[in-house]
Amino acid sequence: RIAAGSGQTVEDVNKLLRQFEAMQKMMKKVKRNPKGFMRGLGGMRGLR
Fold first, then answer.
1. pLDDT tens digit string along 1-48?
2. Cα(42)–Cα(5) distance, rounded to whole angstroms?
3. Rounded CA gap, 5 and 1, in Å?
4. Where are the domains of the chain?
5. CA distance readout (Å), 36 to 1, 16, 18, 32
6. CB-hemisphere CA count at 13 Å for 20?
7. CB 3 within 8 A of CB 10
8. Residue 33's pLDDT is what?
């Protein structure tokens, strides 16, 4: 229903939902241990 109303395919909507759920999971991990998460990024020094 969402796909039809937005002019997108069902696959596109499902992909968006999977990306959202993955980001939500990652944010929960960051919330639990923000320092450990930053250490895990390693080479992305600009974020520190």
1. 888 899 999 999 999 999 999 999 988 888 887 777 666 665 555 554
2. 42
3. 6
4. 2-41
5. 40, 27, 24, 9
6. 6
7. yes
8. 79
